[in-house]
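Today's session is about reading a structure prediction critically. Students often jump straight to the picture, but the first step is always the sequence itself: look for stretches that repeat, for charged clusters, for runs of hydrophobic residues. Only then move on to the predicted structure, which in these notes is written as discrete structure tokens rather than atom positions. Here is the chain we will use throughout the hour.
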Amino acid sequence: MKHTALYCCLVGLTILVGCPDTESRLATPDGNTGDGIIRPIHATRVPGGNKNSGETPAVIRMARRQSPDELNRAFDANGIVETSSNDLRRIAETSKDPISLRNLRRRTKESQPTATDAAASEPKPGIASAAPTAAPNTRIIGGATMRVNHQILTVEDILEGLHMELAAVPNNVVGDAFTARSAEIIRKKMAYDIQQRLVYAEAKDRLEDHVKAYIQNELTKVRREMIAKSGSIARLRQKCIAEGTTLDALMGVQNRAMTVRMYLQGKFSPRIVVNRRTLWRYYTTNQTKFTSDKKVQMQVLVVDYKSFLPRIDSDESKDLATAKAKARAHMKKASATLAGGVDFTKVVKEYSFGPRKTDGGIWPMMAKGNKAEEKVEAAAFTQPKNAISDVIEEPNGLYMVRTVATEGGVVTSFEDAQGEIETLLREEQYSKLQGEYFQKLYKRAIIQTPQDFILQAIRRATEVYRPATGPVRKETSTKPFKSNW
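Below is the predicted structure for this chain, in token form.
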């Protein structure tokens, strides 16, 4: 076997974009056929050019239905000579494209399985093994894929790192409920990966050398810490495999995330401006944000109308009018007793019909909005401590309220609030600049996410984390992937 990348090009990698009946022809590396029309393409990375030339690896991009002659010319130009039929049989198990297989057979020579063939068939650690492993520097990709510019992402790429989230879905969530939950998790990961890869493609070429050195130093520290926590590098590798990834892949994700973060900080931080004038403007227009919540303890005398109705469930207008008159007379006696110098607590215990009568009508500390009677609450919050209100009429009865104690309601000074305000304003400006930058990236990018890709990811997650629930049905497979661009 010389090169198994041949299968990658034709069978293993499928990007479903545009109409499958679009005219097919050999495309340039940017997907352009030379006539200014961008056509649907397949892409994969193959071993270096001519077998004797030592050229660097190249990317072959092919239209979905190329003719054998066009295909052969592309293979000759990239040094792809022959493959083993053993590889062809393995790839055929993951493909249903007979035309591609016929083109493959034209360039295949029968050979016995070799040690290289056996090594190539060794499965990749992770959530699930894809199509057979290829020769060094060659990646054979099976099933649906998504494209972010010139980068190809597989289902395994998306599921890597989701082990903890998918495993954390409760065991009683099965069937369509698990499909919906896993789809939500997978979509968020897809959106995150797209964003990270778009920024990283720009960042890795523009970061200064001292920043790159800093990132590598930090990654070394992270790796050492993970090894120390695991006990050994062997245990760390086993843990990574158990969680559907590899140590190299995990460090790659860490490197990409740190590179993106450092790049964005360096790009936007110099453009953020916060001065004393902007700080003061924000402080004066957002006073409530710098005032702690006020709480009040109140003591309430309640004379409700229903306590004077002949029947509790009576709603006759005549009965209600009589009840209101009796309630007013009762409250008048209570007010007179209070005016005579009797303690408010004793008055409440003698005249109140409220639920806390035996406790003297005392309520615990409460913030605004917790008392059903709005007028009563307003009086308790606005009057001074120990003040007793006049009689207050609510739709359900008559009340008097005393403000027992207050807490909170303290306004933070401008000097003490400046640090908090500056952090907030910097974050707001950073978020705005970042959002505008992302929108520009998305407009320039080629992002293709076939629905089959999402379905395959959900199926794979179901097989691993809910194997008893059976395959994902297409009619329950959630809506097509959409992101914020």
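Discussion point for the tutorial: The CA atoms of residues 23 and 378 lie 75 Å apart.
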